[in-house]
Design goal:
Elements: H1 2-10, H2 13-25, H3 27-34, H4 37-41, E1 45-51, H5 59-70, E2 73-77, H6 84-94, E3 98-102, H7 106-109, H8 111-121, E4 129-133, H9 139-145, E5 149-151, H10 154-165
Parallel strand pairs: 1-2, 1-3, 3-4, 4-5
Helix pairs in contact: 5-10, 6-8
Amino acid sequence: CLAVLKTLSDLSHSAYHLAVDYLLRSDTFVNQNLGRSSSVVGLAGKVVIGTVKGDLHDIGKNLVASMLEGCGFEVINIGIDVPAETFVDEVRKSGADILCMSALLTTTMTYMKDVIVALEESGIRDKVKVMVGGAPVSQTFADEIGADGYSDNANTAVALARRLVGA
C-alpha cells in the first residue's frame, strides 16, 4: 500500500489524478486488489468519514475514503451534508478510531468546530482522533478548531491516519 502511494506521489500532479481517477472508476480493481489488502495485512483501524452540514461536495472525500480502504482501514462513509449529531452517532455506534471531516466551502468549514464540540459534549472526543481536509482548510485552521490532524491530499491523509492509530 505505501509503495503504491509512493509511486503515485512520484508521478506528476496531472498523471497522479489520472491514475487515481482510473483506479476509482474500476470497481473490479478496487474490490479485487485494494479491498483485499485489509484482509492480507490486517485492519489498520476504523474510520468514519463525511462532508459537513451544508456542503454537498464529495469527490475529495470519496478519494480519501477509497485510499484509506485500500490501505487497510475499515471505512464508514456517511455521505454529504452531515450534521454534527450524525457524526457523533456514527462514531459512537462504530467505535471508530478516526473521524474524518471534509468541506469544500469556506462557509461550511467552520461547522467542523461544531462537530468537535458535539464530540466533547457527548463525552467521546477523547476516544476518537479527528482529521480535517478540503480546499479551504489548512493546518492553522485544524489547530484552531482542535483537530488532531489535517491533510490536503489523499496520500498524506493515509499517512496521517496510519500515524494517528500507530499503524
